[in-house]
Amino acid sequence: MYNFAEMKEANVRLLSSLQERMRAREFDVSDIIYRPDSPPIPETTGQSVYFTQVCGFPLMKCFRDQYRLLAAPIYSFEGCIGATHRAFFLVRSESSAVTLADMSGATFGCNSLLSNSGMNLPRLSLAQLKDRRPQFSAIKITGNHSASLDELAAGNIDLCSIDCVTWGLFQSFRPDAARRFRILEETSLSPTIPFVTSAETSDAEAASLVEVLHDVMNDPALQETRNILGLLGLEPPDMVAYKMISELEVEATRLGYANIV
């Protein structure tokens, strides 16, 4: 899940409410704990994952048999349309670049090679530039989007691609820091990071999780919590749309740009 330090309390409230509602339905959730230190892109979802969000690209590429989708969140941030989001190419505010084509020789910061917003979506955008595609001098793997922004601010990279939900949260929690950057260009739309549960979760419990999620999204007592998290609502997960995330890699390869370079 999105886990800026400033949103920890809101995440705990949302998850505690979900847990209380599942307990009221007589599901044993006594051993479920919140893990704010979970990696943004885990090595596995696995049987131990009861409820989380996992980036759509590794879900489709690596974790197909390890999860089931519950719902697609709708966010309030710029760049989101319904249960979709996009990535923003960010540069420092003082950068002279006008388009991506101006970034030849730059260092590109990537949170992970398995990231949809940090690699998969920007790769396709770059692939579609064809003859105007910039040649980067280096690619630096940062580990997460926050680290990419830190590296950009420090001048260690010149460009990175951040999903618009992370960017919206960053602007909300750290407005002064956000003013150091600007959006250069944006990628195409992609489904938002879904709420998922382990593939081992029973049909009945997964169905209850979906119902409880909708209860949480409609509870007036949790309106402030949802506002902090930027959550507007939920849509049923569109499996066709999520499977298309992997097709972006195929299209970039067809255009001769299998790897960001």
Automatic annotation (TrEMBL):
Q: Name one Pfam family in it.
A: Phosphonate-bd
PANTHER family, A to Z:
PHOSPHONATES-BINDING PERIPLASMIC PROTEIN
Q: What is this protein called?
A: PhnD/SsuA/transferrin family substrate-binding protein
Provide the organism lineage as a comma list: Bacteria, Pseudomonadati, Pseudomonadota, Alphaproteobacteria, Hyphomicrobiales
